[in-house]
């Protein structure tokens, strides 16, 4: 009996676990779910056949390696910083490894050992990264097969709210890791436009947005991710004149978020210790000029003369003008802001999240240029069964199943950018309503 070890039982693992457990008896597999609290794992598994829950403190090396050694394959749903630790164990113990996270330099350093031992390591097989790679590569490989030239590739994705659940001025709530949202874009973003390299420093990022339209949903805005250039080689587009990968938000979000960035509320480099009893208003005021004759609201609008009412309303809505006490009194500005937003942007149980993704291609076919839009919209069921968990977990679960069935025969370190990986995964995802709609426009 094949044993699959899943490390980490967070919200993102729900669909992955359900998919693999549904096949466990028929395909003679045992699913082992290891979490810090075994009760959390037991709740996920629900006493279904061929499953077992285990308690695991990931820092307990002996216990961790014992669980890995008795398994045939390991799926890491742990925080990304822990993947290299698990990957090293898998190499040492001769076990295959799967994750939805970015392929780190630490894991890349294991490439030769992975190949020598004939192991299969698959990373970046979730949503973004994951479904974005697979859906893009399908179009890219088809164009190359037809002898067509790809002139431009822009890709945007976002985890947002389904329109009927947009009940606040930001039209946004946390559907994924809040810290990643608060720190998004820090550093330097870079991409290429018509063969010219472009760089955007963090303090300019949320001003450099592009409008993106989805049929039936309306208007969104996209801003560049940190690094679009590295994916030219990944996608086999080393000489492409234009390439950009970006993040989607509802129109108006970035203008308001930029206010928080310019004030310094997203800074994570220093620790603040506001006095006990300090309010959210005090927190905001500490980043504004000293002036006892003007209110916090007046100072903010004086400081940002470009601020309009929709932007002001967003700042007001997250409570930064209120006298309510801060949720925490120690941490970086970003950590304090995150604690404020975690309350204000929390999903209600009946909320439905939504994944939106759009690839924008310009393709030369003979003497004509064509624009191809490939768009994905996936809506969640509620705050527990989210579109985010579905689109992160299912591609990974399907990849594991295909590998154990012998339908993926590759060895070594991989991302899902080869047809033998992405074609069967995309085909299976369509059965779950994860399907791209394509629109071809003549230039």
UniProtKB/TrEMBL annotation:
The keyword Repeat does not apply. It holds the Pfam family Sacchrp_dh_NADP. SUPFAM superfamilies: Glyceraldehyde-3-phosphate dehydrogenase-like, C-terminal domain, NAD(P)-binding Rossmann-fold domains. Residues 126-434 form the Saccharopine dehydrogenase-like C-terminal domain. Keywords: Oxidoreductase. The keyword Oxidoreductase applies. Residues 4-119 form the Saccharopine dehydrogenase NADP binding domain. This is Saccharopine dehydrogenase NADP-binding domain-containing protein. The lineage of its organism: Bacteria, Pseudomonadati, Bacteroidota, Cytophagia, Cytophagales.
């Amino acid at each position: 009996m094949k044993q699959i070890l899943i490390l980490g039982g967070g919200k993102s693992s729900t669909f992955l676990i359900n998919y693999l457990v549904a096949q466990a008896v028929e395909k003679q597999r045992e699913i082992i779910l290891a979490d810090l609290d075994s009760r959390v794992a037991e709740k996920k598994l629900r006493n279904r056949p061929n499953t077992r829950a285990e308690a695991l403190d990931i820092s307990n090396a002996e216990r961790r390696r014992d669980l890995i050694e008795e398994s045939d394959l390991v799926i890491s749903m742990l925080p990304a910083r822990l993947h290299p630790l698990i990957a090293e164990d898998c190499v040492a113990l001769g076990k295959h490894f799967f994750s939805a996270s970015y392929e780190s330099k630490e894991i890349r350093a294991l490439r030769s050992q992975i190949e020598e031992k004939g192991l299969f390591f698959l990373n970046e097989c979730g949503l973004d990264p994951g479904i974005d790679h697979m859906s893009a590569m399908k179009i890219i490989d088809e164009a190359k097969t037809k002898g067509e030239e790809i002139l431009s590739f822009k890709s945007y994705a976002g985890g947002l709210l389904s329109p009927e659940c947009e009940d606040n001025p930001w039209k946004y709530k946390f559907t994924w890791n809040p810290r990643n949202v608060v720190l998004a874009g820090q550093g330097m973003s870079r991409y290429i436009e018509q063969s010219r390299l472009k760089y955007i420093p963090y303090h300019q990022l949320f001003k450099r947005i592009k409008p993106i339209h989805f049929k039936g949903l309306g208007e969104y805005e996209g801003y560049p991710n940190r690094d679009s250039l590295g994916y030219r080689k990944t996608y086999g587009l080393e000489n492409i004149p234009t390439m950009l990968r970006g993040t989607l938000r509802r129109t108006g979000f970035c203008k308001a978020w930029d206010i928080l960035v310019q004030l310094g509320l997203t800074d994570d480099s220093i620790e603040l210790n506001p006095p006990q009893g300090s309010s959210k208003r005090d927190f905001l005021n500490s980043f504004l000029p000293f002036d006892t004759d003007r209110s916090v609201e007046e100072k903010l609008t004086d400081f940002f003369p470009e601020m309009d009412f929709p932007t002001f309303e967003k700042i007001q809505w997250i409570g930064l003008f209120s006298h309510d006490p801060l949720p925490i009194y120690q941490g970086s500005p970003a950590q304090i802001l995150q604690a404020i937003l975690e309350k204000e942007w929390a999903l209600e149980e009946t909320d439905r999240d939504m994944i939106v993704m759009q690839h924008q291609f310009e393709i030369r076919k003979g003497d004509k240029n064509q624009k191809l839009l490939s768009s994905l919209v996936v809506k969640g069921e509620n705050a527990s069964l989210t579109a985010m968990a579905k689109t992160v977990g299912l591609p990974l679960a399907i990849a594991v199943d295909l590998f154990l069935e012998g339908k993926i025969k590759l060895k070594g370190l991989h991302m899902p950018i080869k047809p033998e990986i992405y074609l069967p995964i995309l085909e299976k995802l369509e059965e779950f309503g994860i399907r791209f709609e394509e629109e071809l426009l003549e230039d």
